[in-house]
Design a protein that fits this description.
245 residues; alpha+beta; Archaeosine Trna-guanine Transglycosylase, Chain: A, domain 4; six-stranded mixed sheet; 10 helices; elongated
């Protein structure tokens, strides 16, 4: 199961640096992650008001309920060293009735942070609990990880399979991102593998599939490509732009 957890930047930095070994969530009510997270689950780290910066895997998970001052003090005594919380944390949580402690393992920092729309105020979301959200998040992951979309044919198959995502997602932005990936692949072919015919045909196949998807969605890929070139590739001459019809 996958979870999206919101953190202050300082806590995320501690997790990514390997300093924070345990994450604790306290609440007055039975809110997630209480009884929602288990060993082996993936927890994605979203900066408050910002992007998803990385993830970790849940190790052991401890759940506490019917908390009182004595029980909270005992949790603090046992785990404060690994929690690495700020000074006012325990004062804020002293009236909590529920707590979840998640032991952190297999931390991964994303080289390309993920921009993700999140409009509610929940600090912990079980992705599968929101219809369609888990699939949209997977799509965002594919866009953020350049290695996973180096083979654009795989991504195109994914988009065709997830037809609902195509309807809900910002189509123009999606095509622009795909076009940018083609641009990088094209640069790789021209600069490093110029004599590799297989790579050239692979690039051509990808571009054809992009055109087909664009036509099916009613998106003018050529106009968007012109705009993208003008914005991001100023070294390309205007004569070359005129050849794109």
């Amino acid at each position: 199961m996958q979870h999206l957890a919101v953190f202050d930047k300082g806590y995320i930095e501690k997790i990514l640096a390997g300093k924070k070994k345990v994450e604790a969530r306290f609440s007055k009510f039975r809110f997630a992650p209480f009884k929602k997270v288990k060993k082996g689950d993936e927890i994605f780290l979203k900066k408050s008001g910002g992007k998803v910066l990385g993830k970790f895997t849940a190790g052991s998970v401890l759940s506490f309920e019917n908390l009182n001052v004595r029980k909270i003090t005992e949790i603090r005594r046992k785990y404060e060293k690994d929690l690495k919380v700020d000074g006012g944390f325990w004062e804020m949580k002293k009236k909590s009735k529920y707590a979840t402690l998640v032991f952190i393992k297999d931390v991964e920092k994303f080289p390309n942070p993920i921009a993700l729309d999140k409009h509610d105020r929940r600090s912990w979301v079980v992705l599968s609990d929101i219809p369609g959200y888990s699939s949209k998040f997977q799509l965002s992951l594919k866009f953020s990880d350049r290695d996973s979309i180096s083979n654009l044919t795989e991504l195109i198959k994914f988009l065709k399979k997830e037809k609902k995502i195509v309807d809900d997602y910002d189509l123009r932005d999606m095509i622009l991102k795909l076009s940018a990936e083609v641009g990088e692949l094209s640069k790789n072919v021209s600069e490093k593998r110029s004599n590799n015919d297989t790579a050239k045909f692979e690039l051509a196949d990808v571009m054809i599939q992009l055109v087909n998807i664009s036509d099916r969605l009613g998106v003018d890929l050529f106009e968007l490509t012109k705009k993208r070139i003008q914005e991001c590739h100023s070294k390309i001459s205007l004569d070359k732009l005129k050849n794109i019809k």
